Amino acid sequence: MNLAEESICKRLPRRYAPRNDGVLFCPGLIKRMELIDTHCHLDLPAFEADRGAVLQRSRANGVNGIVVPGVEASGWDRLWDFCAGDANLYPALGLHPVYLEQHADADLKALESRLTEHRPVAVGEIGLDYYLKDLDQERQQALLEAQLEMARAADLPVILHVRKAHERMLSTLKRIRVRGGIAHAFNGSLQQAAQYAELGFKLGFGGMLTYARSSKLRALAKAVPIESIVLETDAPDMTVAQHRGQRNSPEYLPFCLAALAEVRGVDPQAVACQTTVNAREVLGL
């Protein structure tokens, strides 16, 4: 093991340890890498024609768990039924800020009922999007706070969508304390990353790491403590460089793993082990 890999081993739970030959030993991962895609919209129509084949190829590539976040109330039933048929698909339910105009007041009441009755893995995808200028920021804030309160009451983690709004998101999370969660597609500062970590959050990194031009993001992924990182694809969007111009897919998560291992100078197996531990820990999988 190199020094970076040894540092990862020291931070892992005791059930994960280096073998005598110096290779990182993770029970359950020893036969092959086990990866968790912590953000994949596999329920969307983009996968309708070949969803089963996508899942087969993903598992062949070591992607054994997939978190599927909901974005609109109209899609929750489809998402829930789809995940119910597979123990390795983890549903989350939420109202996404980008679809602000599609959400109704009744959707919040419906979400509260579902969190109690069905117990998804997380509340999400929820958040703040200040990149899109036509989205009312105060209405987004009210929607976010209502869902954070529900997550707190249900003792569930949250999956956050945050664009150009990290400072307001952090100040909100400090007021409304939840059980942590994931800041998906993180692209904030190192200082903001530390604040999320203090609040119990992991940071999602995915396909954009595979682009050499993403120098700022790659530097961030190198600097953030590895115990704060989880992997994601955000499929069908944000595809990896190796499949530029195509539909993104959870089967491409190993490309994200390879990019993260490259920027950190660590063996991919060590990164796979730690990021999988991180995902299981923050989501209670």
Verbal overview:
With 285 residues, the protein is α/β, with parallel strands linked by helices. The chain has a single domain (33-283), classed as Metal-dependent hydrolases (TIM Barrel), CATH 3.20.20. Helix content is 40%, strand content 16%. The chain has helices at residues 3-11, 51-60, 76-84, 105-117, 137-154, 166-175, 190-198, 215-223, 253-264, 268-283; strands at 17-18, 24-25, 35-37, 63-69, 89-93, 122-129, 158-163, 181-184, 201-205, 229-231. α4 (105-117) links the parallel β5 (89-93) and β6 (122-129). α4 packs parallel to α5 (137-154) and α9 packs across α10. It is globular.
What distinguishing features does this structure have?
single chain, about 280 residues, alpha/beta, TIM Barrel, 8-stranded parallel β-sheet, two-stranded antiparallel ribbon, 10 helices, 10 strands, disordered N terminus
Query: What is the residue-averaged pLDDT?
Result: 91
**Reading side by side through the largest sheet, how are the strands ordered?**
3-4-5-6-7-8-9-10
Helical run tally: 10
**Termini gap:** 28 Å
| Rg calc | 18 Å
CATH architecture: Alpha-Beta Barrel
From the spread of the alpha carbons, the general shape counts as: globular
Number of strands: 10
Strand content: 15-25%
Fourth-tier CATH superfamily name: Metal-dependent hydrolases
Helical amount: 40-55%
Q: What's the CATH C level?
A: Alpha Beta
